[in-house]
Specification:
CATH class of the largest domain: Alpha Beta
Strand content: 15-25%
Shape: elongated
Structural class: alpha+beta
Largest sheet: 4 strands, antiparallel
Distance between the termini: 29 Å
Low-confidence stretches: none
Number of strands: 4
Mean pLDDT: 91
Helix content: 25-40%
Oligomer: single chain
CATH superfamily of the largest domain: Lrp/AsnC effector binding domain/regulation of amino acid metabolism (RAM) domain
Strand order of the largest sheet: 2-3-1-4
CATH architecture of the largest domain: 2-Layer Sandwich
CATH topology of the largest domain: Alpha-Beta Plaits
Number of domains: 2
Radius of gyration: 20 Å
Number of helices: 6
Amino acid sequence: MSNNLPFTLDSLDFEILSFLQKDGRMSFTVIAEKLKVSIGTVRTRFNKMIEEGTVNIIGRVNPDKVGFRCYAHIAVFVRPATFKEKVAQHIAELPEVSFLAMTSGDYDLEVDVMCRDNNHLVDFVNEISKIEGVNQTKTTIYFKVYKYAQPDLKLLK
């Protein structure tokens, strides 16, 4: 169980995470050899990061290869402004949503979605337009996705 003290990652933790980002199935033995540490050290560090919620294990699919052919960015305008949190919570529950954030600027919420096709996207936009507080949406379809990745941990150095 996690205690209430903050968990701080060090350079070894980041190196372990970097290897796992490249190949989530890489064995602790291989990681330990590459980092010149014991397998137990890698296992202990990894288990601590799991326990603290720093990392979780998932199977990440290539959306295009499994049938998602329509990606889009939707700007959502919320009125009255006091409904932002409620609208965001509702949108976050929808399975098409891959990214959701409150923004500053012209619109209130930024939503990225993955849909089967354009008809699915139209249905999705119609669905969120019915949420109480959604005043307007602006949809931009991504014709081609060139990169879809996790953040590069080396940027934090």
